[in-house]
Amino acid sequence: MSSDMRYEAPATLEAAVALLAGASGVARVLAGGTDLLIQMRGGRVEPALLVDIKGIGEMRSISAENGGFRLGAAVTAMEMSEHAAFAKAWPGLTEAAMLIGSYQIKGRATVGGNLCNASPAADSVPALIAAGATASILGPNGRREVKAEDIATGPGKNSLAKGEIVASFLLPARPARSGDAYLRFIPRTEMDIAVVGAGINLTLDEKGVCTHARVCVGAVAERALLVQAAADALIGTPVDAAALERMGAAVSAACRPIDDKRGTKAYRIKVSAVMAKRAAAIALNRALDRARGTK
Amino acid sequence: MAKQHVTTTINGNPVEYLCESRQTLLEVLRDELHLTGTKEGCGTGDCGACTVNVNGRMMCSCLFLGVEAQGKSITTVEGIANGEKLHVLQRKFVEHAALQCGICTPGMLVASKTLLDRNNNPTEEEVRYWLAGNLCRCTGYNQIIEAVLDAAKEIRGA
After folding, report:
1. Which of B8, B26, B42, B57 to mutate to test the interface with A (most CBs of A within 10 A)?
2. Residue B18 belongs to domain with CATH number
3. B109 closest CA partner among B136, B138, B84
4. Domain that holds residue A42
5. Mean pLDDT per segment of 10 residues, for chain B of length 158 residues?
6. Longest dimension (CA), chain A
7. Which residues of A1-14 are buried (b: 16+ CB within 10 A; e: fewer)?
8. Which of A77, A228, A291, B33 is most solvent-facing, going by the fewest CB within 10 Å?
9. Beta carbons of A5 and B129 less than 8 Å apart
10. Whether A104 and B21 lie within 8 Å, measured CB to CB
11. Rounded to the nearest 5°, which phi and psi values hold at B75?
12. For residue B1, what pLDDT is reported?
């Protein structure tokens, strides 16, 4: 590693944007560092400038907003899981973030970092997309709001322009009968990278009919896939076995995975339906439990 | 570029050091401060041998820059004993033969202490999940889990 890397830890988002926008060489945002420092060690990226954003209050907090939550992009998985109201509203997203690595990693790794690092197998990303999160991005030309599904574009690639930072996410207000869930398949119980991951978020009406659904699968394409046809298979149904079968078939049909050491194409396509169906069953139970709790 | 000046607290003592901006906390601890209790295993955050406690959270010091320690409070394995008096976890690791080669032990101790500081009555399953990021290739883990549970019992006065 060359030693002439500049390290800055600005206190405001505006200062961080100015540093990134003004950088002449390779510049990187340092959040938890659990991907970036490994890439630097391996020589895959040699930044001339690191902008550590962990001193920026807006990026480090969870707060109520418009009946939902504003989630700072540099909030760690552990911090999210320890925020009782957030973890109760979004158990699927919280569990997804808490599947990332060891407790050492969960105390460091951030949701914004997981999204911007743009691994197709990132665990929190399908859950974040299923949740309908909107990213608030600050850049040299001001702020813009972008759906979470439009950030990652391919392995290691995202849609951010030079100088832009994902500052936070808005998680929308939860209707009464809503639930989310995330499941991943790995060949052991901990400390592995998803072969397939599936995030489901759904809302029921008073009769138990699904009125809203979002289905997102990871590790089955170059980025997490939001599958509208799978959501459509659930909407208007009581999320019964027949609806789950149609939803699973739609998920499998949308997958375009690669063969790699973790799984073959055929295996991933098949398992994506299994994971999505199981996650939907959990999300359904959470929605029903909440409905009972509100009676 | 000039080295960065960092003011931090390590094992309760105020510490100042100069480091390159790319140096990891692990490199600073071992090579600059000569606190060689913290070990390097994989260097990629998978093995937990370099675990230290930063402001109450355990971290892999290989995935943490030396400059990020500014203003933080860090505990390494050297800070666990009280002088010559071993911490109960260290004593229980010895009693249960929870180590062989010893490379994983500093990380195991820091991680276990972080757990017991949060929860002095963990289940066996909680201990196993908490230590999932600390790899040991000697013991098969059972003695480590037993040592942690036994230490927790003593801490509770049970």
Report:
1. B57
2. 3.10.20.30
3. B136
4. 6-52
5. 91 98 97 98 97 98 98 98 97 98 98 98 98 96 98 94
6. 64
7. eeeebbbbbbeebe
8. A228
9. no
10. no
11. -120, 130
12. 60
